[in-house]
Write a structure and sequence with these properties.
69 residues; 5 helices; single chain; mainly alpha; 0% strand
Amino acid sequence: MKKYRELLEVKGRLRERKIIYPKLAKYLDISLSAVSNKLNGKSEFTLTEASRIGELLDIKQEEMGRYFF
């Protein structure tokens, strides 16, 4: 699974901010199953999705590649 450790960090940040998957799915305008697949490394985030999550979780732009690509 690609980027497993980094995706765990993203999941941790989501939990810290009490952002549940359905809320994230609505925020990204994608399905709940798509959010789950992306956060579990089964599919990749688009640049737009990664950028929006980065803004939501206060991830610096220079760190985006480490988490998502």
